[in-house]
């Protein structure tokens, strides 16, 4: 028997035990996990040290090592996030629809857990704790398949979670960690339809593309963000500069950062040079069209790949366009359906842009950096969906649920 | 250029033209299609005749020929269904959530079309009209890939729809029929991620399994129904018999018909023989466990395959169980997560059954035959989802929509 099948079966069995557990029982278990992580902090940091050492030996960059690294503060932050999670309302059991039929049938559409959630993710060990606790809060079992680069950290975290769960009403088997991080186990997970209700990939474009291409288990695609800002003719120059510079430079490594800029030609003629200078002063590398390259000698000429790039770094592609329609067309061709913004004082152009651009979140006069479960007020986030089915945009607790029709009769049949 | 790519591109362009079309414009177009179908009835029946003749020559059974056949009445029924559709509320544009942030950001989660829907289906030409009109009502473009056995009928129906659309505000390209019904075009459709937002298979288990296995486009799985009725110890004998006999025999070819029966041993000892006799009198073939075969010599011994079978015919599998827990376990092992019923006067057993059985619709003292978009009051149905993401159970107009966050600011950035 394979590890994947064994753990799949155990998680499925646990998911049935989770059905009907009270919000109190689930929150109690979450609090128990929070304290246990603090209690086990020393051993967790020690195991994390092994991953860091292995990573250094493999020559990982400091930014990758930073993603793997746990600290006392980071563990405390995990515990605080779990406590905040216990304060969120429990979505399970909510009545979504009540239908009373003339024949006396009473139909209640009710929110229920998905069952077993598979998470496949890269470096960050905090995803282990996030995914486990969000799953438990929503009554789901979870199978975690992290990266080999965080093997010891993930194992220590899950051991701590198991230790906590063993003191609660919730089944220990509800959280499963796949220890064999080979490609073969990933493939097996993609086809574990018998036990998995959904698979959520978290990581780079390659991982997500592979999961979408190969998985027969339904996938919640979380996504790459090639986010654009379009500066329309009537945009306020100060607002445009603030949104673009902040959106590009405040945290370039996140998916809602700005990756591409479209500028109306008339606005560009008046304020373009100043904006380009602001970006250059912040060390942003610029890939521009011919117009940009003419006024900014240090700009590189953008190629087809640049227009589709999610740089996740201090780099941006810039194109001058003749109107809103051209901006919309460009975005619908190169965007990743994540977050797109227009800066304009023209309400008509704003409305056309927001309606025509095909993305999870569209902004008028605000930064795309707000696409985030916490910023939207959901209090939690399992990822940002760039697909259109089930959930689109920041996914909070509700995205981790399904529904079920409960039908109550007195012997009704179809005539 | 391939037919699939060309039509995919045209449908995608049309889907953008559909954005923001008023409910009036959409309903007007639907009415126009309804009249055009009536007007074109003669040519449609003539073309349908070609399919019927080809089908007879290929030796199709009368039930398959009946599925292909159109009549004056069936075309009138299609037109009436379209008129009813115009009377349903338009889901598009509905505000699903309004979030006001302290920083002044206003976030509106709004219902929007999915974009382009792919439908891949078997024989019945009425699916062509259903899928096209439900898609237009929800602002979606649609790519129809029917079966070669209904080639002439589908072509005549889509020609009629195009003729109607050309007189309206909606783009003719919003409805595309794939004329090459080879396996190659089906495969191409499975990977048309560039243009397709969702793929909905309608047909037998083989078709659905193939689509789920091969498609990289997100799939809305509509489903097989191996529906069970569990007769608990305290079930009223008359109610149990009525629900079982009606659920099995009233229309055996549909997915919500009863395929398997589980009976509490004590109930069986009292009323079992009578129930079996009723089924036999209705010509139902019985595949039973050892207990059933002992009391009913004409029963065949059920094998592993029978417990998982969706007979779609006058046949049923029957097993005697010792309690509700055994019934639930059996259903969760062999069921297809469609519709499951318990007949009992014990509220505790009913609650346990409804909660523990993993299915789209669960029934207490009523027939599984009610799992249907029209019976649930949705006024339309594109299929019954047996998956847990996006939509579960009967899918009405809302299942054909997505959501989008519209965010309105005054220059806000992340600090």
TrEMBL record, chains A, B:
Which Pfam families does the protein's record reference? Aldedh
Q: Which reaction does it catalyse?
A: L-glutamate 5-semialdehyde + phosphate + NADP(+) = L-glutamyl 5-phosphate + NADPH + H(+)
Xref: InterPro entries: Ald_DH/histidinol_DH (IPR016161), Ald_DH_C (IPR016163), Ald_DH_N (IPR016162), Aldehyde_DH_dom (IPR015590), G-glutamylP_reductase_CS (IPR020593), Glu-5-SA_DH (IPR012134), GPR_dom (IPR000965)
Q: Which CDD domains match?
A: ALDH_F18-19_ProA-GPR
Query: What range(s) does the Aldehyde dehydrogenase domain occupy?
Result: 75-275
Family listed: Belongs to the gamma-glutamyl phosphate reductase family.
> NCBIfam families this protein is in?
PRK00197.1 (NF001221), proA (TIGR00407)
- What gene name does this entry carry? proA
Q: Identify the keywords attached in UniProt to this record, alphabetized.
A: Amino-acid biosynthesis, Cytoplasm, NADP, Oxidoreductase, Proline biosynthesis
- Specify the enzyme's EC class, one word: oxidoreductase
Q: Tell me its EC number(s), please.
A: 1.2.1.41
What GO biological process, any one, is recorded here? Answer: L-proline biosynthetic process
Which pathway? Amino-acid biosynthesis; L-proline biosynthesis; L-glutamate 5-semialdehyde from L-glutamate: step 2/2
Gene Ontology molecular function terms on file: glutamate-5-semialdehyde dehydrogenase activity; NADP binding
State the protein's name. Answer: Gamma-glutamyl phosphate reductase
Q: What is its main location?
A: cytoplasm
- GO CC annotation terms, alphabetical: cytoplasm
Role, per record? Catalyzes the NADPH-dependent reduction of L-glutamate 5-phosphate into L-glutamate 5-semialdehyde and phosphate. The product spontaneously undergoes cyclization to form 1-pyrroline-5-carboxylate.
- List the source organism: Peribacillus psychrosaccharolyticus
Compartments annotated for it: namely: Cytoplasm
**Which PROSITE patterns does its entry note?**
PROA
